Predict the 3D structure of the following.
Amino acid sequence: MSPREIFALRDHLGAELKGRTISDAHDVVSLTDILSHTVLGGRLHELSGRAVLLKLSDQLRSGLAMIELDGIARRMLLCPPDLNPAHLDTLIADAGIDAVVTDEPDRRTETGVSLVVAAHLPLQAAAPAKTERATEWLMLTSGTSGVPKIAGHSLEALTGAIVAEGPARGPAPVWATFYDIRRYGGLQIFLRAILSGGSMVLSDPHEALAAHVARLNARGVSHISGTPSHWRKLLMSGSAAQFAPRYVRLSGEIADQAVLDGLKAAFPNSSVGHAYASTEAGVGFAVNDGLEGFPADYLGNRNGVEMKVVDGSLRIRSARTAHAYVGRNAAALTDADGFVDSGDIVELRGDRYYFVGRRGGIINIGGLKVHPEEIEAVINRHPDVRMSRAKSRKSPITGGIVVADVILTEGTDPARAKEIRDQILEQCRAQLTSHKVPAVIRFVETLDVTPAGKLARTDA
Amino acid sequence: MSVRSKVIEAIQQIAKEQHVTLPALSDDLSLHETGFDSLAFAILVARLEDETGVDPFTISEDAAFPATVGDFVRAYENVPA
């Protein structure tokens, strides 16, 4: 017998709160009576105690399947939409998968897993299930070019920050996110919607931004999250003017002062906050004072999250981190003391820490290490710049130089390009050492963003 | 604009940005005497590559880096179109 009660997602859902929904661009599903319905064709009992691969083409059925499976399956592996199919066999072996939930049952027989359960809409009526166990949640890391790593979480770890914050004040929130909910950043928002008694509006990769914003408005979205790249795209689109959320959240990339100020200007009546979280380290903290970086006194033990800086990178130990990498040759997730090395490099200036970049993202400029994010943060401070990317370029003289691609804010007169270029360079020379100042600045219309919502740096 | 004037203009622009005071740019002026450091030359070569489409110092492996302003300009003038 378990010494304490196990809570699964279903235990946060009940018929007492009316009008709750989860929706995407095509369907609206009521969360109020979700426990007496099934997306799995009534076959949930077959998945009891199984290691289930959740491989669905859309977020709505994925979310509904998560609600059903949590507390019933032994573990479930969430497949994000951009997962390379070539990695599937390795992941199935590493996670010990013995059942698949999919909307393409014919194709899934290729995986060699014999138990295949189809997920489909509309929902069917079914007897409510009872929580049997604490299901292990397996999430894939993003950003690596090889087979992604599998990080194992418990629902308790995933919801640690949500429970610690307590319920939102005022009416039940309607949450939305630009992320996919099968990634850590998006899953946090899905879980917030479930635990907060609110509703959830899902993104759709095939929907134009203006149509997405119109849908967010129509569904009354009050709380919304995305990466700084997602938000910069929204600001560039001109669609922000029609939208007035109460709470705007950024995570997944460095939130520099320019994007925080841009959002505050676009949404003067919203609170704008940035959160630090990763698939491995869980949710570290949220910063709500409108400033980039975080106060130095966040280090140490704060609300059960311990943080320290070793060799420049942020290390985190808490009950919210993943508990292990899963798989045959899985590396250790934490050091001997239980700290996760985030790989995010921070720098203390005054009484605040600032994120300067990823350890793995360093570019080499004539033998000197440079974080492209540090250069971008300076470029982005120019009032006519919306977004930028710094990268290295080979040089026959010094081995490498910094070059930058820059997107100007919407409506900037192209005739001012030379003047703006000179001002950006002046600004960079005043704030960066000389080898970090871009040798060449190119004005571009777009910059690639990965499916995970981060500025693409693969060709850096 | 001739290749020569493109090169000279780029040198002057970078000198302005880098706060380098250039002597008169005669053909026999040694590149050392321009006051440019290696970073300034790296910027110059990168920008000229963007403008002219060529980087004469990467094309040929045994290309010696020029010694004078005149050699430098000729390196761009002598690239086959």
